Amino acid sequence: MRRTSFKKLSLLFALILLVGAGCTGPSAAEISATKPATISIWQVFDSEESLLPIMNAYRAIHPNISFEYRQLRSDEYKNELLRAFAEGKGPDVFAIHNTWVGEYESLIAPLPASLQIGYSETRGTIKKETIYTLKEEPTISLRALKNDFVDVVSKDVVRAYRVNQNTEPQDRIFGLPLSVDTMALYYNKDLLNAANIPEPPTTWTQFQEQVGKLTKIGQNDTILQSGAAVGTGKNIERAIDILNLLMLQNGVEMVSDRGSAIFATGSDKENLAADAVRFYTDFANPLKQVYTWNDSQPNSFDAFVNGKAAFFLGYAYHAPLIAARSPKLNFAIAPVPQIEGGKTVNYANYWVETVSRQTKNLDTAWDFVEFAASKDQVTKYLDLAKRPPARRALVSSQLEDETLSIFASQVLTAQSWYHGRDAGAMEQAFIDLIGATLSGSDTQEILTITQNKVNQTL
């Protein structure tokens, strides 16, 4: 009786094992490669069409991944981001300006050292079999970032990161750019021709001379034609960038090694920053020979597209906007002027793609950002969006492009400097600096005030 019971129990146990073996659940690799996931992407200036080829290429490799794309207006973007994150409904991938990294640092999940990504592969001819693999793939290293991207990128996107209070801070990557834009000089060829100026200026001294020839003043000191849309703050596109460019070209050290603003140091006569401020505001000073602009003028972009200003300092993204607004405008683009005999310095203005700390698809989101910024994929975006490259290896490919060559040729010497928590407050401080200087305030005194305001955001 006991032997019979033992045999029955043995058969039952074997049956359970067989049934259990046949009901084994999907592996981690299969789940990663097949479980549907949606990556939400928020952008400002890039339409879905410009990134669609890259998204389609990623889906070809990972068919379980779909994308939800949203393009927002620039004036609503920050508020919408903060509201969405506060409600726990923020995007997985979102774009931030290169000066915003510090502001959004707490909302960003920095790039991990490696990612676990699932892949599926169908093998066999007659009897097909799907193989699932879960690969742990290393991400771009700090060394590769510095080698593969132009210099300004690593200085902007690498931040010290502490996993928790008990760990030492380590440098981590907080975003990757698809492009790096630089400031250039747009000029109206018809106005230069009429003034018998054969070529645009290459130095600021030449710029001053040509502005004098191109400016036309009417009765009651009315500006009939501006030589250049430059000199004020509120009606100049990216006035802060122009002034900061002049300061950097003039050798101003904007921040110390410890990250504090120090541009106002030195006496009034020896302060390089004060020289740059005076140079800039002289173009809006009626007492100066280079007077060509004032606060009553329209927006600098509008003045240029309407043929009322001969020179306009802008970026690559302005080119299609100018062509669309004024198709018959005979304009061209030249490198931004430099200080004669000085070190070549250009100014960077760009966006980086980053991943939210709230995302439930961290590995996939960062994998897509790396995929989009890769050399093989990003060219699709650059061609559609008409933007200069962020990768060194792609610079030479644009040097023959009629529109982008100027911007691409400047990315290797492009700089930026602000790494604080409130770029908006920093920019307002410089706008106030320009206004106060034009109102007659002591340049050195207002520079010190500006420096103090900026330090409150660092």
Describe this entry's structure for a reader.
It is a single chain. The chain is an alpha/beta fold. The chain has two domains: 32-110 and 141-178 and 351-397, D-Maltodextrin-Binding Protein, domain 2 (3-Layer(aba) Sandwich), CATH 3.40.190; 181-349 and 420-455, Periplasmic binding protein-like II (D-Maltodextrin-Binding Protein, domain 2). The chain contains 17 helices and 17 strands. The chain has helices at residues 2-22, 28-34, 48-61, 77-86, 142-148, 151-157, 189-194, 204-214, 239-249, 272-281, 300-305, 318-325, 362-373, 375-385, 405-410, 423-438, 443-455; strands at 37-43, 65-71, 93-97, 114-123, 129-138, 158-161, 170-173, 176-177, 181-182, 184-188, 216-217, 223-228, 309-314, 331-335, 346-349, 351-355, 414-415. The strands form five sheets. Strands 2-1-3-16-8 form a five-stranded mixed β-sheet. A five-stranded mixed β-sheet has the order 11-12-13-10-14. Strands 9-15-17 form a three-stranded mixed β-sheet. Helix 16 runs antiparallel to helix 17 (443-455). The longest helix is centred in the first third of the chain and has 21 residues, at 2-22. The protein is globular.
